[in-house]
Amino acid sequence: MTGEPAHVRQMWHLVEPLHAVLYYAPEAFEEAAALGYDTGERWASYFAWRAAPLGAAGAGEAVRTFHSFAPETVGRHVPAAWTVAGPDAVRAARLRAVDRTYRALFGDQVEGPELAEAAALARRAAEAAAPGIPGGLGAANSALPWPDAPHLALWQAATVLREHRDDGHIAALAGAGLDPVESLVSFAAIGAASTEVFASRGWSSREWDAAGRRLQERGLLAADGTATDAGRELRAQVERRTDEEAAAPWRALGEPGRERLVELLGEPWLKVIGSGLLPSENTLGIGKV
Asked: In this predicted model, what pLDDT tens digit does every residue of 5-28 receive, in sequence order?
């Protein structure tokens, strides 16, 4: 991959860990527990953290937003999350969680000029993100007020950018005629991650197998569960469309700004990756596709 798509993909790989650390950091689980969420497993806080920008979203809205999750999985957590704490309280707590997490990871760097410069550049990019899916998480996070602290603004920019990309990805999957479970089965079929990793999305084996049969009927999946040439090409088209939908912020930033942001975020990115907080294999296919 070369040219603009490669740059767009590079920036996604760079900002995604800066956003996603919220869902794994011990400081975030402590903040979630203080609100009253069950932290015995991570999903109660995950759905609360991600859905809070939508307001008190109902199950139907959340199912559309959390596209890859089985509706039953989403329904166990939303709207029940808002009976534990309201969206305003959750949004405030997630910023406290990010503040504590970034300070633990980056130390004095959170007060430094380089991180402030990175935050300003990332915000410029995020503010150029298109609205995306109406009611989607990209638009919802874009509408939030910006934190004053540079490290919190950096996290919010990373969040806007990744959710904007995710909204575009959902649109690309729909354009390819892939429903939520077919999207995962077809992704696993190209080796993006193991089926065990995708099991976290809550689809039953019956639903997974039925999706595989539908994909076989379309000539996208072989009998052994691997993608056919047509299946690989369709997934490649989805990724290209996703990159195209995610390109506007980086065009707005320009090549010098983008390259400077890459330089500035290199050390923080390494600290997040080196922390061991994030899983080595993920459902996004980072490092695989």
From this structure: 889 999 999 999 999 999 999 999
Our CA angle for 74, 78, 80, nearest 5°, is: 135
Residue 81 corresponds to which tokens in the numbers above? 């999350």
* 213-219: long-range contacts, CB 8 A cutoff, minimum separation 24: 214/182, 215/182, 215/185, 215/186, 215/189, 218/177
DSSP characters over 156-180 = HHHHHHHHHHHHHHHHHHHHTT--H
Q: Pull the structure tokens for residue 264.
A: 């500035």
**Other C-beta atoms lying within 10 Å of the C-beta of residue 229:** 10
Beta-carbon contacts of residue 160 (< 8 Å; ≥ 6 apart): 126, 129, 138, 141, 142
Q: Is the pTM of this model over 0.90?
A: yes
Q: Which residue type does 83 have?
A: T
Core vs surface per residue 168-186: b (16+ CB within 10 A) or e: bbbbbbeebebebbbbbbb
Joined tokens for residue 260? 């400077």
